[in-house]
Automatic annotation (TrEMBL):
SUPFAM superfamilies for this protein: Carboxypeptidase regulatory domain-like, Leukotriene A4 hydrolase N-terminal domain, Metalloproteases ('zincins'), catalytic domain
Keyword vocabulary terms for this entry: Signal
Keyword Signal: yes
Every Peptidase M1 membrane alanine aminopeptidase domain range: 748-896
Cleavable signal peptide: 1-21
Species annotation: Larkinella bovis
Protein name, as recorded: Carboxypeptidase-like regulatory domain-containing protein
InterPro entries: Aminopeptidase_N-like_N, Aminopeptidase_N-like_N_sf, CarboxyPept-like_regulatory, Peptidase_M1_aminopeptidases, Peptidase_M1_dom, Peptidase_M4/M1_CTD_sf
PANTHER family assigned: PROTEASE M1 ZINC METALLOPROTEASE, PUROMYCIN-SENSITIVE AMINOPEPTIDASE-RELATED
Residue ranges of every copy of the Aminopeptidase N-like N-terminal domain listed in the record: 477-651
């Protein structure tokens, strides 16, 4: 559960006091480092956010809250000029060569308040007049073409005065034209690094990410671009909520200064501060903004349920306590008349207070200071980013960059290093992974985003398509026997594949990764000819096989199977590790990549064998756990032991597994039919994991209540500690504990872990019993498994744990690709998170749209019965739902599964006397989208409406605009509210 990074998108702006821990930078060859301070000449106070730049070079920095700055200048610029300026001060310019002290103190004179003509004019105008003029001048003053900017981002999080994590990045920014606020700005990561400090000081779990992020700074602070935004101070509709005071200021340019604070009608006033407007051009130059207490309270009340659940899960209470922000706009260096302004600098501070009695933290402050400074401007007229755009990625920038302590990190990027103060490194570098290779940094953000964009290849088709070479036979039995040489990381063995011929054939396709050599393929004791193309193997028979006949081929092979690539989703392989005592520990995970990465088979999800034998020979002293029942354990010559397992049900190829290690075993029985429960873990974890195994019976009881009986009773149920979590049929692996140290588990560890166990075990129903026929339909495995986690949270978190959990998944939806993949190409190596988060939200939304929990519950069990031990498509699932509900819901699933956009409820609100007139309709990709949804029909009371894509109107008595709400907790929808007459129709000013 993650606190949303876009916590503040509904406030426009804010401002801040940073506390950059600027250290003295290492002097590097060829660079001059100025580490100085800017001071107010009259008062001796520091000048925060003063610009310090090399004239005409696009090189610059900004002083921090205590007036200090660090600027690296190439030594060749020593004859250039340094300009220091700040709003409200007279700027000064000085030759760099004349700056003798490497720690210069620069004094700025405050600007005089003038009594010139403009000021006299100003007296005849109100602040509102000035604001209207400035808004009207936006198209003239700001770029009306797109612009590329390069910026330096820096963020520091601190717990009290202790640093928690610091991040730095160089970003390339796509700034959409100022007159096109509907076009989102884009952002690419050029280079970045972070430093994480010891978590022990605050003990918060890693998933709690209280960062602010470059994305928020970029998208939600440029108030000029968002001028028409509903809550924007400069939007005329909000003027009635503020009190304005107008004055003028003469620095380098004459400025109007508008002080603003909430007025009498303060309900919709979210900030106070100062706006600076250039008197000559009427351009907005700067805003200093601080959230009001009302705004702070509103933020704390938003998503209260989500926050309550998160607080309960994490035993943690987080209170937002404040937001400050400064946004500056600049003209290009040496600008002429007619040049356009652009956003040049954003600083933001926000604060939380944390209380967690279990961690002995009472009301402790957490602060986040962030800064985005533009360092290069241009070119203009650039196209939006088509790839690598992290502005659309909800993942905080912290997750996209790596720990990096190399002092030369920025030095390699000579064009931009001048802005760096090397403060991530700090004075006490943490000994850690020196992950210093830039290519790895870039790789982490330019993950393959799926072959949908890149185009599919013949190899994808061979892997994913059901051609006659595959569809003309049906596998009935696999007899897999492998020997695992752990020292050499080699597996060798045979697979006997028994199959029924469905259509006459003399050639068929099986699959085995091309890095795994085949020694021989035999049929009726004779070797067969075969050819290989990518990972496909085409086997030829000397004569045509008759339809209906039973055949068997035996494939003998050996090789070094691939290891997983964690940078690519679902890129599986063999894990070769050691346990804490130094014993070998080996596991295979291959969902997505496919079983053919380690054994030859018909690697298509549509065909499961009716049963299977899995024999695994391992070095003496180790055990192998596979699926189904252990039938025998045989000592073999040469210090080898063979474990023979038997699966008596159909099984997905990717679920066939081996887990080799020094395992301890415990057996129990469950239920009236005495289902055997086999639990395996490392011997040193038997006590530590007791609670996990003790939780199995209630878990199975809950899952059986919702989905029907455990699907594989003959094979028993096995749950094991493993290297990686995976839903291996009747041999569920829960991976390593989040905290694999010898210490006790925290409550958070146990909750997260149990949630994972429930997820994997739910796959026994969703994925293993009812399985998808093509990878494109895998979403329902993950959607239902994630949905099932809600049952656990409901039992673990009092009051609406499930509701809060599912609603919290909204923040995780990526929305880049539809939930349904591309058929016939095994489409899987892309960011598949939406199958989980959006998938579960879709199920939850459907349940609430259906509004008949009894029928919903019947259908869940019904699907399990109707499609028991079968492979199905999404259409089979929808067909079943349509049949049982007697209603065609194809439009619902079509919208949510085949499009990245979700339906938007468009609402127009008008107060008429004491009633509220509500006009509403759906905006969706699917024509005739018509989902019922819940809205407040009385204050704080939801009732259902039945919107279609045409406008409808209801009148709600005794309701005001602010009482109206759409139930976005139970319905995964967007809401767009227009209040056409909300300001002008009110005469209560
Ligand atoms: Zn899963």
């Amino acid at each position: 559960m993650q606190y949303p990074a876009n916590l503040f998108r509904q406030f426009l702006v804010g401002f801040l006091f940073t506390s950059f821990a600027i250290g003295t930078s290492a002097q590097s060859t060829g660079y001059l480092t100025l580490s100085g301070k800017v001071i107010n000449r009259e008062t001796g106070e520091p000048v925060p956010f003063a610009s310090i730049s090399v004239v005409g070079r696009g090189i610059g920095t900004v002083s921090n809250v205590v007036g200090t700055f660090v600027l690296k200048v190439p030594a060749t610029f020593v004859d250039d000029s340094l300009k220091v300026s700040s709003v409200g001060y007279q700027s000064i310019t000085q030759r760099i060569s004349a700056v003798k002290n490497p720690n210069p103190v620069i004094y700025l004179k405050t600007a005089a308040v003038t009594l010139d003509e403009v000021q006299v004019q100003a007296r005849r105008k109100t602040a509102e007049d000035i604001l209207r003029e400035a808004v009207a001048a936006i198209p003239r003053n700001y770029d009306t073409t797109s612009l590329q900017l390069t910026a330096f981002f820096r963020e520091d999080q601190a717990f009290g005065d202790q640093p928690v994590v610091s991040s730095e990045a160089i970003l390339s920014i796509y700034k959409a034209a100022y007159n096109q606020s509907e076009i989102k700005d884009g952002m690419k990561l050029i280079k970045g690094r972070k430093r994480e400090y010891d978590r022990a000081i605050h003990q918060l779990p890693p998933m709690i990410n209280l960062n602010n992020g470059a994305r928020n700074l970029l998208l939600y602070t440029d108030f000029v671009k968002l001028a028409s935004y509903k809550r924007n101070l400069i939007n005329e509709r909000n003027y009635p909520y503020y009190d304005f005071t107008l004055s003028t200021l003469k620095g380098d340019r004459l400025l109007y200064v508008i002080d603003f604070k909430p007025g009498k009608r303060k309900r919709k006033a979210f900030g106070s501060g100062k706006l600076y407007i250039d008197a000559q051009t009427m351009a907005f130059v700067q805003i200093e903004y601080e959230a009001t207490q009302a705004a702070v309270d509103a933020e704390n009340n938003r998503d209260w349920l989500l926050k309550k659940v998160a607080s309960a899960v994490h035993k943690l209470d987080l209170k937002f306590t404040g937001l400050k922000e400064v946004v500056k706009y600049s003209l290009p260096d040496g600008a002429d008349a007619g040049d356009r302004w652009h956003v040049s600098h954003v600083e933001r501070l926000y604060r939380f207070r944390i209380t967690s009695k279990s961690r002995k933290l009472i009301d402790r402050p957490w602060t986040v200071t962030s800064s985005l400074r533009v360092t290069e401007v241009g070119p203009k007229g650039v196209p939006p980013f088509t790839e690598g755009n992290i502005a659309e990625n909800p993942s905080p920038i912290n997750n996209l960059i790596r720990n990096q302590n190399d002092p030369d990190f920025w030095e390699n990027d000579s064009a931009r290093q001048h802005v760096s103060a090397d403060t991530v490194l700090g004075k006490n570098p943490v000994a850690g992974r020196a992950d210093s290779v830039e290519s790895r940094l870039l790789k982490s953000v330019s993950n393959p985003v799926g072959n949908r964009q890149n185009g599919f290849t013949r190899a994808d088709t061979l892997r994913g398509k059901l051609t006659p070479f595959r569809s003309h036979y049906d596998v009935t039995f696999y007899d897999l026997a492998v020997k695992v040489d752990i020292d050499q990381r080699v597996i060798s063995g045979t697979n006997r594949m028994r199959f029924r011929v469905l259509e006459p054939l003399d050639k068929l396709q099986i699959d085995l990764y091309e890095n795994m050599p085949i020694h021989q393929i035999r049929h009726a004791g004779k070797p067969l000819r075969y050819t290989r193309e990518f990972n496909a193997v085409f086997v030829e028979f000397p004569e045509m096989m008759k339809a209906g006949s039973e055949q068997e081929i035996e494939i003998e092979y050996a090789g070094k199977p691939q290891v997983p690539d964690l940078n690519v989703p679902m890129m599986g392989g063999f894990l070769w590790e050691k346990d804490r005592d130094g014993n070998p520990w080996v596991q295979v995970v291959c969902q997505g990549s496919g079983a053919s990465l380690w054994w030859p088979n018909k690697d298509h999800l549509s065909d499961e064998p009716d049963s299977m034998r899995i024999s695994v020979t391992v070095p003496d002293g180790l055990m192998n756990i596979s699926n189904g029942r252990l039938r025998s354990k045989t000592a073999l010559p040469g210090n080898w032991t063979r474990y023979e397992w038997y699966v008596s049900y159909p099984i997905n190829n990717y679920n066939v597994t081996l887990n080799i290690g020094n395992y301890a075993h415990r057996r129990e029985v469950y239920g009236p039919d005495s289902l055997t429960l086999d639990f395996y873990c490392m011997p040193y974890h038997q006590e530590k994991f007791r609670w996990v195994f003790d939780g199995v019976k209630p878990m199975l009881a809950t899952l059986e209540k919702h989905y029907g009986p455990y699907p594989f009773p003959r094979d028993g149920f096995t749950l094991m500690e493993s290297l990686y979590p995976m839903e291996h049929q009747s041999a569920v692996s829960f991976g390593k504990m989040p905290n694999d140290s010898a210490g006790p588990l925290t409550l958070v560890d146990t909750l997260r872990h149990m949630q994972l166990v429930w997820h994997e075990v739910a796959h026994e129903w969703w994925g293993n019993n009812v399985s998808c026929r093509d990878m494109a339909d895998m979403w329902f495995h993950e959607a239902f498994a994630t949905y099932s986690e809600g049952f656990y949270l409901d039992s673990a978190v009092p009051e609406n744990g499930e509701l809060g959990y599912i609603a919290s998944l909204r923040a995780q939806v990526i929305g880049k690709e539809p939930v349904i993949g591309v058929r016939d190409v095994n489409h899987i190596h892309y960011e598949i998170g939406d199958m989980y988060s959006k998938g579960a939200l879709v199920l939850y939304t459907f349940r609430h749209a259906l509004n008949n929990d009894r029928l919903w519950a019947e259908m869940l069990k019904g699907i399990q019965q109707r499609f028991r031990l079968q492979t199905i498509t999404t259409n089979d699932l929808i067909g079943y739902i349509n049949e049982k509900t007697g209603t065609d819901y194809t439009w619902f699933f079509d919208q949510y599964l085949n499009y990245t956009t979700i339906p938007t409820l468009e609402v127009q609100l008008t107060e008429k006397g004491s009633s509220l007139e509500v006009k509403y309709r759906w905006k969706a990709d699917v024509p005739n989208f018509r989902m019922p949804v819940a809205v407040t029909k009385k204050p704080d009371q939801f009732g259902r409406i039945l919107p279609t894509t045409s406008w409808q109107t209801i009148v709600l008595p005794n309701m005001e605009i602010d009482d109206f709400e759409v139930d976005e907790t139970r319905f995964y929808v967007n809401v767009e509210v227009e209040e056409p007459q909300s300001v002008s129709s009110r005469s209560d000013r």
